[in-house]
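Input record (one chain):
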Amino acid sequence: MENIINSLLPEISITITLFLILINSLIDHRHFSKSNSILIIFGIFISIFFLLNQSGSIYYMNEALVNNEFTKAVKILILASSLVSICFISKKNDELYSKIVGEYSLLLVMSMLGALITISAREFFTLILGLELMSIPIYLMTAMGPKGNIAVEGATKLFFFGTLSTVLIIFSAVLNFGMTNSTLISFDNSLSSDVLSILSFFFFFLSICFKTGLIPMHFWLSDTYQSAPSNILPYLSTIPKIAVISLLISLVSTEDLYDNIPYIKNIIIIFSLSSIIYGSILTLKQKNLFRLLAYSGIPHAGMMILFSILNMQISYSFILIYFTFYIFSNLCLYSSISNFNKNQFEFYVEDLKGLYKDSPFLSIIITISVLSLAGVPLTAGFWGKFNIVILMYQEYGIFYPSIILAGAAIGFFYYLKLIRFIFSDKNINSLDKFDIELEQKLILSVCIAIILLIGLNPNLIDILSRF
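The corresponding structure, as predicted from the sequence alone:
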């Protein structure tokens, strides 16, 4: 019992924070925005403290949940990035957002709790609980934006595909139960046929594809990113995706899936490489900035999922490098763009023309973030993409890495287009007046410093992960 409580302390601390925010929102009507932020920051730090004091690998609650070094590292990363997202949930100079910041805070913490449960889940009912707890608050936050019917439409599409994703997991759970007479997540075919095992995994993987926006399950991405409130996009674009992908990587690394059912590896490779190439081509065609950013996440999701077919012991620190650069690059990029008072449906890439003259700070932040996402040397993104190419070459030869490099080359062009517009001549009246608060500047500077430090010394991740 004591081991179970110790293993659940990070989740318990976030749950207590959730209830404290709810109570505080009911009591303190005048200053609940500031006090809620303090409660969230305190709760996250307490949760990180408990995670740092966990060690070893342990299954608990009848193997429904697991804690190991990988899940611990990903949870700390998600909590740290959620801390950054909190600072951009509400802008003090925006009355529309400030009126609902209390609800946003509550929903974000609830979603964060779901992400922690999802990462550790090893049983279908626990996984569904974690996914729904992570997803439902996002549906609500998307619909609560100031865009009215447009926001509701985007949230409805997100809800529909999220529900379909849950149904696919239930299908997988039913097939899995028929094979193993257990609700534990296992695609072992020793008790049944290869066909049922493949079908069970296929439904499970399709659900992952919906959650991460992999090709061809990317229908919801562009509309959702355009209609969602811009200051929840730093969270929406990173945390759910990383939580689900880390679940897949952690799950398949503990089972002999590829030895028993080699077709599973082929399924992952086909979906991932298709997403890298087609996602890059799709992004290249976009003129709306938010549609471009939405589709640009597809190739990255494909690359991250490829880590699931590699040796976990070798690729452990490389996975964390990719997660870290992807999270912090997107946090900086979306957080910077959320400061522009521009309708997302009318925000085109060309509207960034001459941004450097209006805001040198945001221009530098966006440029470094984009260069990292493009995989340019001296940024963390270079090591993330370099590692996946080298590992795939060592494991599978030259063909698959060539496809990855082709997708990265295409991606470089649309990322370069953003930089070219930022430092080009001024496009008159392209953006309304905007400003950025000092605390946000400090947070963005820290995130950029992390990207550059890892770019200069990727061993920092390995050193930090030992703690």
